[in-house]
Amino acid sequence: MAQPLAVQPSATPSLARSLIGMKAIMATSGVILFLFVVGHLLGNLKVFQGPEHFNAYAEGLRTVGAPFLGRGQLLWVVRVVLLFALGAHIWAAIAVTRASWRARPIGYQRLESTHTTYAARTMRWGGVIILLYVIYHLLDFTFGRVNPSFIPGDAYHNVVASFRLWPVSAFYGVAMVVVGLHVYHGVWSALQTLGLHRAPTERWRRGAAGVIAAAIVAGYVAIPAAVLAGWLR
Amino acid sequence: MKLTLHVWRQAGPSARGRFVRYDVPDGSPDMSFLELLDVLNQQLIARKEEPIAFDHDCREGICGACGMVINGRPHGPQRATTACQLHLRHFADGAEIWIEPWRARAFPIVKDLVVDRAAFDRIVQAGGFITARTGSAPEANSILVPKPAADLAMDAAACIGCGACVAACPNASAMLFVAAKVSHLGLLPQGQPERDARVMQLVAQMDAEGFGACSNHGECMAACPKEISIDFIARLNRDYIRGTFL
Ligand code: FES
User: Fold this and answer.
1) Residue A2 — pLDDT band, cuts 50, 70, 90?
2) What's B15's domain CATH number?
3) Is B154 part of a structural domain of the chain?
4) Per-residue pLDDT tens for A55-68?
C-alpha cells in the first residue's frame, strides 16, 4: 500500500548533488558571468571615445567607491565573485557532462537530431574554447605577458598594440563568435533551468536570446575591427 | 513493397549485439511498422531462425509499450506517432531501414529491441501519485479545478511512458518524463498537499537510476509521440527549486 509522501531528510538531495540542482548552479553562475560580459562590453566601447576617456575609465574601475573604499577594493570584490562564479560554472558543467556521458555507454548507429541547435550542441567544447581564450586574454591585457608592447596603466595603447596584429584580432573574433553561441543557448537555457518561464515568455525568449547574443558579438568584434581598419590607433 | 531492414539483434542482456540485414519482399503500404516485423518474424520462424523480440501491446498508440529507433528517430520519422501507428506508406519502396533499441544505461537491453524500462516504474513509485483515501466518490464540485489548469494537466498526463524522450535525448535524460509526471499532479488541487515531497522524491529516483542531465536540446519534445512540451521541464525545474528552498 502506498504511504503518504513525506520529505525524508536523507532522501532530499541537496542542490549540489542532484542534476537539476547542478543545472541551477550552472544557470545562476552563468547569469553572473553573462552580466559581466555585458558590463565589460559597455566599458570597452569607451575605447571609441579616445585614449583619455578609455584610460580614465580603466583607472576609474580602481578608484570607484572612494572615499569609502580603498584603491582597487571593489575591483577585487568583483574579481573574487567572478572567479567563484566561473569555478561553480565549470564544476557544474563537468559534473552534468560526466553524468550524461555515463548515461549512454553504448551509442546509436545513427541518431538524428531534429530540434536542437548548433549553439546547444557546442556548449561543452565552446566552453573549453572560451576558457582558453579568457586565459590568453588575461595574459594579454591584465598581466601583459603576451602583449607586444605592454605599458601598465595605458590600457588604450595595450589594446591597439595587440589588435594591430591580425592573428590576435582573428583569434579574438573567433572567440567572440563562440561566446555569442554560448550566450545564445545559455540565456534561453538559463530561463528554462531556473523555471523562469511562463507561457507568454516562450514566444520571445528565443528571439531575445538571439538579439542579445548578436549584439554582444557585434560590440566586441567592433574593437579589433576598428583597430585593423586604422580607425583606432 | 520491398524493404531492406538492418535490425539490432542481441541474444540477451550481456550478449554482444550486432545489426543483421533482412530483406522483406512483401511489405504493404497499409501495414504498420510492427506488422512489418510480424511478417518478417513469420519468415524467420519458417526458416527456423529466432524471431526478433520487440515490445508491443495495444498497437493503437496509447499504451507506450512499443518503441524502437527507426532510421535514427525514436518511433520513426512520423511526427507524434508511435512505432505501432507508423505505417509503411511513409517509406519509399526499396527503402533501407535501420532499427535499434532505446539506448540508455537506465534502460538495459533485455533482448533484441526489448529494453527494461522498470526505471520509469520506480520513478512513479517514488511519488508519481496522490495518497487519496478510497471510499465513495466525493461530490464533483467540492474541489474546483480551473479549466486552464485542467487542460494543462491533461497535456502532461498524455505521457504514455514509452521512453522515446530518453532515447532521443543526447544526454539520455529522463527530464521530460519526470516533468510530465510532476506537472500533471502538481497542476491539480488534489496534487498540492504532496507537491514538494513528490518532486524531490521523483528527482532523487531519476538521478539514482542513472539518467543524464538535461541540457535543453528539445529533442525529447520532438520525439514524443504525445508531443509533450519542454515547458513542463521548466515547470519541473521551478517546482524542484521551490521544493529545495521553501
Ligand atoms: S503498442 Fe501500445 S503504444 Fe504502441
Assistant:
1) low
2) 3.10.20.30
3) yes
4) 999 999 999 988 99
Q: Which residue of B has its CA nearest to A19?
A: B213
CATH class of A16-104+118-228: mainly alpha
Residue B91 domain-assigned (yes or no): yes
Pair (B8, B84) in one structural domain: yes
Distance B58 CA to ligand 1 centre (A): 5
Residue B201 domain boundaries: 117-244
Domain count, chain B: 2
DSSP B66: -
User: Mean pLDDT throughout A165-179?
Assistant: 97
Q: How many helical (H) and strand (E) elements, i.e. helices and strands, does chain B have?
A: 8, 7
Q: Which H helix or E strand runs over A228?
A: helix A199-228
Give domain status of residue B105, yes or no.
no
Whole-prediction pTM: 0.94
Torsion angle (degrees, nearest 10) of CA B179, B181, B182, B187: 110
B124 with B210, same domain?
yes
Gap between the Cα atoms of A100 and B166, Å rounded: 11
Ligand 1: residues with CB < 6 A are: B 56-59, 61-66, 82, 84
Q: Are residues B11 and B122 in the same domain?
A: no
- How close does chain B come to A39, measured CA to CA in Å? 26
Q: Which of residues 3-32 of A touch B (CB under 8 A)?
A: 3-7, 11-15, 17-24
Task: Kindly list the residues from chain A whose CB atom is less than 8 angstroms away from the CB atom of residue B207.
Answer: 13, 17-19
pLDDT at B48 over 70: yes
Q: How far apart are CA A193 and CA A19, in angstroms?
A: 11
Residue B100, SS3 per DSSP:
strand
